[in-house]
Model the fold of this input.
Amino acid sequence: MSLQAMIDEWYPVGLFSQLDSAGRKTRLMGEPIDVASDADGNARVTGGDGRVLPVRVRYGHVWSSLGEPQKEIFPIPEADQPGRRFVDVGVVRVRCSPLRAVENFLDIAHFPFVHTDILGAEPHTEVQNYKVEIREEEDEVWATQVKFYQPQAAKSASGGITTEYMYRVPAPTCSVLYKTCPPRPSEWDVITLFVQPLAEDLCDVWPWMALFDDETAMTDLIHFQQTIFLQDRSILENQIPPLLPLDPGMEIPTRADLTSIAYRRWLKRHNYTYGAQLVAQ
Done:
């Protein structure tokens, strides 16, 4: 299996705000790495063999790569929009494939059952028709016109609303979610999932948000998002097989799984196979 396609991608490896000279020892795709600040306060990432790895700082996170990225980190225009609050949610370690973590983030149908009375509730379980496409110019997976009833769509929401979503996959282990912003209906809240692949069956998940919410305490914003993801973790760690199947015949999709189908097709097209299972066993 060739891993070069994913080796040459950018991955989150830590929060910039938590950098210090002592460094943070972690792993990237099985290789030990050290994430630290240098004498000038800049981020520095070194591999297990002492080699200096590429570094970028974006969206509150330090990004690095074991290879030679052929493009810059994907843009999120809202990250430069005045008036937004940027929320570094922290990190959650999950015993699952990094690709499974992203696909779960794209799944709408589980809301009423996993995030009961927050992101969904029975009897509002039907997933309405929505649009999915692989945008060739950007080389990204997009799902649009997604609508779902939610008892508490965001920490800033005061009651149940029908929430509109857009999902975007700009990199194999990253996803960007745009959803209805209760305080500003003309804008979108932005919630991202940046996944650091520690191994094929283990990852650190770094959620990050760009919101219009001047009322909620930062601690409450972080706690709300961590609550959501910790509910997901128990599901993710019990999925079988643990790696993400890319063979269409290995799992039976439903109409609600259109985004997952497109995501798997896109992964296979680019040979993004670290954390994937290619054939039935």
User: Anything to note?
Assistant: The longest strand covers residues 188-199. Residues 218-236 form the longest helix (19 residues). The radius of gyration is 18 Å.
